[in-house]
Amino acid sequence: MSHGYHYMVSKYNDHLNTDWSSIDSENIATRLNVSTLYERLVTYKELVPYPEHILLFLESSSKTEDSCYIGCNYADSNADSASSEAQLHSYATKLLSTQSQFARRWCMESSFATFLDQRLAILQRVWYAFHKKYYQVEKTKLQTSAPDEASSAHAQSEPRSDPIVTSLVEVQRTCNQALLEIAVKSGISLLFALLRQSSAYSSITGQPNLCTQVLSTAVSVVRGLPPLSLANESQMSPMGVESLAEVSCFLKQITQPDSSVDAEGQTRASELLLGLAVQRGTLRHLVHLACELKHCDGAASAGGALPGVTSQQQDKSEVYVWGSNSSQQLAEGTLDKILFPKLARSFTNVQQVEAGQHCTFLIHSNGSVSACGKNSYGRLGLGDSNHQATPKKVLIDAKIKKVSSSKGSDGHTFALTEHGQVYSWGDGDYGKLGHGSTTVQKTPKLIAGPLLGKVVVCISAGNRHSAAVTEEGELYTWGEGEYGRLGE
Predict the structure, then answer these.
(1) Where are the domains of the chain?
(2) Residue limits of the RCC1-like domain (predicted)?
């Protein structure tokens, strides 16, 4: 919280309750973590900033003028002693009240008070998440299972039910739930088996591929759902959550390169996985999905093309973008945020996308690199510091197979060639570019020094430091070494 501003609760977003309820309590003990969590509240507009003078106006408007300002004069010399003493007492009381207000406001502006305010706001948000996720769910269940008003009134006039009868009703309800769970799980397993069988025999029998048809229908249904329909798991039954997990597991299995599903079916399964992850609305599901798809892509690269997919089709990849576009790093011709995945028309023939600090790098199918977005400190490697609204080719005399760009500081980037050489460019503070200096490098430059003659297999651009791993398993680090981040 910056001085001169206070924050008021706007409205909590229920689809974020799962994330807030999973926060470790130890994260609320340090100032750094509290500041980060507090910024999250402001970013998602769950807390709204108000200038201090507005709050002072609201505070003063609820009081009388005499209680807010010192409006008394000294006692008149011609007044009687009783009246003069009363006025002096009133003046002293208001003077003490005003000084108390000044002292209280000064204490509120201290850094320690700010930390306590932030911590209290975070604890209130976590409490709300737990309240909605657990207490409210149990309350809803009780209300759902309770009889209506008429039956309740009738029940009050009747004597208490027999505990044995009550236990029998509970047993019957439990049996019904178990039977329903058996039916649902058996039906899902049967559906998965039929889809696999239809996909395996469609090419032999010439019959329509039932698996592809079902997946296409499911993709259309998910696309037609309102945004974040699956975000609040507390409103889903345990059976629904488990069924969704089984469906996701089945979809991941058929996207594997060695599955019997054809290329179109694998594409539909990937689209459905992405749609479900977006509807669930948490970064955890999106990152997990990205890791799964990256694993599949690595297996396909090692074993050749996907079944039924030619190399020409693989070159025609599509890229979806979303998030901040403040520096036109998404190349969509606007500075507005993109809240949902959108097909990037200008990102063509791409085999890898790397999101940097307000910038984006593309590795194309021919090994060339393009960049767009913010270009301060030459972080795009285009030879200047001009921002780039559309992807522009980065001049590197080699085929690139991986790019790593920092997500903080003033931006620096590495490019790994197919022969294990490393190029770097951007901000050179702390020597993080590996060229033996701290100067800005606006075009890609080959890293020499200890890496000369080494075959690098992995690179990583940190905040103010960098790392590389060679094929011999050697780890090299350089840049800022604060807190021992370089391992030295």
Answers:
(1) 13-49, 245-285, 320-479
(2) 315-487
* Residue 21 CA from chain centroid, whole number: 15
Pair of tokens at residue 416 = 């790994």
Residue 212 phi/psi, 5-degree rounding, is -65, -40
The answer to whether 404 and 354 are in contact (CB under 8 A) is: yes
pTM over 0.85: no
Which 3 state secondary structure label does DSSP give 349?
Answer: coil
Closest to 74 measured CA to CA, from 58, 59, 61, 90:
90
Nearest to 347 by CA among 321, 319, 323: 319
Residue position matching structure tokens 């089945």: 250
Cβ–Cβ < 8 Å for 353, 412: no
Q: pLDDT tens digits, residue range 172-230?
A: 556 667 777 777 777 777 777 777 777 777 766 667 778 888 888 888 888 888 877 88
- List Cα–Cα distances, 203 to 199, 210, 261, 311, 428, in angstroms: 8, 12, 10, 21, 57
Fold of the 320-479 domain = Methylamine Dehydrogenase; Chain H (2.130.10)
